[in-house]
C-alpha cells in the first residue's frame, strides 16, 4: 500500500472540496450511486482511470476487456480506486474510410475525459495502430500520471509450415491472386491463418512498432511491449501496471517527466533497430508536439538512418511476435544500442528508473531473431527524409528495399542511389484499383507510380495506399515492385520501399497535384531530393492554371467529423495533428 502523496490529489476537488459543498455533494451522490462508498471517495485514495480501447468493434484491442480485470486488482492492491471508461474505438482494418480519421478524434475525446473527470492517474490500454498514439497524445496534453499497457501481439500465424504474418501476408496473397497462382478460397485461408489469436498484428507493423516505441519512450513497464496477448505474462504485466500507476500518482511522475527530448531520440534509434513502421514519424511527431518537445522530421534521418536493423521480423525479416518476445523484446534491443552509445541512458521511465538501469544488462535469447549490434540484418535501417520541388518532406524506409528493387533502380555506378522515370498518376485508391491492370495506363518496368489525393485532407485522415502493386501483366513478367510515391501513408506491414507521407499533399496544393502522366521525376536518396524534371517557369505556369481552375478536387466529406478535421488538420510531415490543439499543453499541471 502506497502512502498518501505529499500534495492534494486533483480528484479531491470533486469529492472533498469544502469551498464548494454544493457541487461536492452532487458529485459524491452520483459516484456513490454505482457502488463506491463515501469512505472510499473521501479516503484520499487516488482515483485511477482505465482508458479502455477494447470493444467488439476493436478486435485487436478486445483482450483489454479481460486484462482490465487484472489492472483493477493491481490498482486496488496498491490502494487506488478504479474508474474504467471507454475510448472512441479505432480498428485499423475495420473503419471506413480509414482509421487515420479517428486518431485525432479519439485523442480529442480522451483529453476531455481525462481532464474533465476526477482522475489522478490513468492506465492507457494501447495496441492496434492508432490507439497507441491517440492515448499517448492525450496523456501528453493533459499531463496527469499515465502508464501504457500494451494488449500484446497475436500468436504467430502458420500456413503449410511457414510463418504467416498479419498484414504482410495480405500483400503477398494479393500478388499470388493477381498472378492466378491461388484461388479465392486459398486467398482467404492464407490471410486468415495470419491472425490465429487475440492481440494485434504479429508483424513489425505499426502496432508492434508503436507498442515498442511506447516502451522505448518510457511510457510502459520495461519488457512489456512484446509479450503476446494470450500469454500468462501479459496478465501479470496488467497487474503490475495497475500497481505501478498508483505509485506514479504518489510520486507525481507525469508524462512531461518521461516524454523528454532524450526519450524521443531513444525511440527514433529503437525504431530503426526494430525496422519500425513508416507511420512512426507521424505519430511520434504528434506526441512530441502535444507535450511541447521539438522533434523535426530531419531528426529521424540524423538519429535514425545509420542505426542498424537488429530485429528480424516480417516485413523486413522472417520472424513474428512470439519470436520477438522470446528473443528478449525491447530491452534486448535497447541493451545493444546502449553498448554503442545510441541511447540516452538517463531518460526516466514509468517504473521510476532510467531506461539505462532498466535495459543495460538485458540479453538476447535468440541471435537469429534479435541480432547483436555487430551482426545486423542491415547496416542502416532508418528513414531517408526527402525534399525537393515535389514536396517539402517525404520519407522512405530503406530497410525494405529488396535486392530486385536495388538491382533495377539503384545500381547505376555513375549515379548511385538515384533513379528517374516517367510517372503514371492515380487520384486516390479507387482510381488506382479501377485502372491498375488496364494496359492503356501504359505502365512499364520504368514507370514510377504516383498516388495523390490520399493525404490527411484529400482522403480524410490519410489512407494507407501508397504501396501499389504493379499491374498483373508485369507481375507475370517477374516485376514485383515499382517505385511508388504518394501523399498518403502505407501500412507498416507492407514491405514496399515507397516514398510516402509527402507533405504538402495534393489536396492543399502540393506539387503532386500538378503532375501529369509521362512527366519525369528524379529521386536521389544520397542527396535526399525528389524533383519533377520540368523548368521552374513551366511549373509556375502549371501552378497558376491549377489554382485558377479551383485547385485539387477531392471527394466531399461524408460525416461531420471529416469536415471538421479537414478544416484544422496539419500535414503528415508535422504529425497530422489538429493544429489548434497544440496550444493546449500540460493542462492539468498544478
Ligand atoms: Fe489492429 Fe494490425 S489491424 S494491429
Ligand atoms: Mg495500418
UniProtKB/TrEMBL annotation:
Its EC number is 4.2.1.-. It holds the Pfam family ILV_EDD_C. Signal peptide: none annotated. Residues 368-576 form the Dihydroxy-acid/6-phosphogluconate dehydratase C-terminal domain. GO terms for molecular function: lyase activity. Belongs to the IlvD/Edd family. This is IlvD/Edd family dehydratase. It comes from Sphingomonas echinoides.
Amino acid at each position: 500500500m502506497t502512502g498518501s502523496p505529499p500534495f492534494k490529489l486533483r480528484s479531491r476537488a470533486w469529492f472533498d472540496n469544502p469551498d464548494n459543498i454544493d457541487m461536492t455533494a452532487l458529485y459524491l451522490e452520483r459516484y456513490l450511486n454505482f457502488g463506491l462508498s463515501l469512505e472510499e471517495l473521501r479516503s484520499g485514495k487516488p482515483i485511477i482511470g482505465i482508458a479502455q480501447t477494447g470493444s467488439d468493434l476493436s478486435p485487436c484491442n478486445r483482450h483489454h476487456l479481460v486484462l482490465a480485470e487484472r489492472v483493477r486488482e493491481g490498482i486496488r492492491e496498491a490502494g487506488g480506486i478504479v474508474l474504467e471508461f471507454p475510448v472512441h474505438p479505432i480498428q485499423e482494418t475495420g473503419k471506413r474510410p480509414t482509421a487515420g480519421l479517428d486518431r485525432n478524434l479519439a485523442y480529442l475525446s480522451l483529453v476531455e475525459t481525462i481532464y474533465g473527470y476526477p482522475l489522478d492517474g490513468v492506465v492507457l490500454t494501447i495496441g492496434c495502430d492508432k490507439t497507441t498514439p491517440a492515448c499517448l497524445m492525450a496523456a501528453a496534453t493533459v499531463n496527469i500520471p499515465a502508464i501504457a499497457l500494451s494488449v500484446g501481439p497475436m500468436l504467430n500465424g502458420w500456413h503449410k509450415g511457414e510463418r504467416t504474418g498479419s498484414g504482410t501476408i495480405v500483400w503477398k496473397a494479393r500478388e499470388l491472386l493477381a498472378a492466378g497462382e491461388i484461388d479465392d478460397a486459398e486467398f482467404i485461408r492464407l490471410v486468415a491463418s495470419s491472425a490465429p489469436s487475440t492481440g494485434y498484428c504479429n508483424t513489425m507493423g505499426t502496432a508492434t512498432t508503436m507498442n515498442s516505441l511506447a516502451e522505448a519512450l518510457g511510457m510502459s513497464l520495461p519488457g512489456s511491449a512484446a509479450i503476446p496477448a494470450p500469454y500468462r505474462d501479459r496478465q501479470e504485466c496488467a497487474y503490475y501496471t495497475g500497481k505501478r500507476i498508483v505509485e506514479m500518482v504518489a510520486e507525481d511522475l507525469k508524462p512531461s517527466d518521461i516524454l523528454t527530448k532524450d526519450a524521443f531520440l531513444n525511440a527514433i534509434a529503437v525504431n530503426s533497430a526494430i525496422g519500425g513502421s513508416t507511420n512512426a514519424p507521424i505519430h511520434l511527431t504528434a506526441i512530441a508536439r502535444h507535450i511541447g518537445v521539438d522533434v523535426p522530421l530531419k531528426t529521424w534521418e540524423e538519429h535514425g538512418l545509420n542505426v542498424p536493423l537488429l530485429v528480424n521480423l516480417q516485413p523486413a525479416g522472417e520472424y513474428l511476435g512470439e519470436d520477438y518476445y522470446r528473443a528478449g523484446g525491447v530491452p534486448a534491443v535497447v541493451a545493444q544500442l546502449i553498448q554503442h552509445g545510441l541511447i540516452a541512458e538517463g531518460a526516466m521511465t514509468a517504473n521510476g528508473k532510467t531506461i539505462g538501469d532498466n535495459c543495460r544488462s538485458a540479453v538476447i535469447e535468440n541471435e537469429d531473431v534479435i541480432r547483436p549490434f555487430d551482426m545486423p540484418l542491415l547496416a542502416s535501417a532508418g528513414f531517408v527524409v526527402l525534399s525537393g520541388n515535389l514536396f517539402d518532406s517525404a520519407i522512405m524506409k530503406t530497410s525494405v528495399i529488396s535486392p530486385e528493387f536495388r538491382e533495377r533502380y539503384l545500381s547505376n555506378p555513375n549515379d548511385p542511389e538515384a533513379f528517374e522515370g516517367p510517372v503514371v498518376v492515380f487520384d486516390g485508391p479507387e482510381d488506382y484499383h479501377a485502372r491498375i491492370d488496364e494496359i492503356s495506363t501504359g505502365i512499364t518496368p520504368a514507370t514510377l507510380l504516383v498516388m495523390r489525393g490520399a493525404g490527411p485532407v484529400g482522403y480524410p485522415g490519410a489512407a494507407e495506399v501508397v504501396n501499389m502493386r504493379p499491374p498483373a501483366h508485369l507481375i507475370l513478367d517477374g516485376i514485383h515492385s515499382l517505385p511508388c510515391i504518394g501523399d498518403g501513408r502505407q501500412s507498416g506491414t507492407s514491405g514496399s520501399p515507397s516514398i510516402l507521407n509527402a507533405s504538402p499533399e495534393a489536396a492543399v496544393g502540393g506539387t503532386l497535384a500538378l503532375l501529369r502522366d509521362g512527366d519525369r521525376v528524379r529521386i536521389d536518396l544520397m542527396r535526399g531530393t525528389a524533383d519533377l524534371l520540368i523548368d521552374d517557369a513551366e511549373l509556375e505556369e502549371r501552378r497558376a492554371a491549377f489554382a485558377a481552375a479551383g485547385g485539387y478536387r477531392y471527394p466531399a466529406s461524408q460525416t461531420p467529423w471529416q469536415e471538421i478535421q479537414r478544416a484544422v488538420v496539419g500535414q503528415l510531415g508535422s504529425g497530422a495533428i489538429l493544429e489548434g490543439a497544440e496550444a493546449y499543453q500540460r493542462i492539468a499541471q498544478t
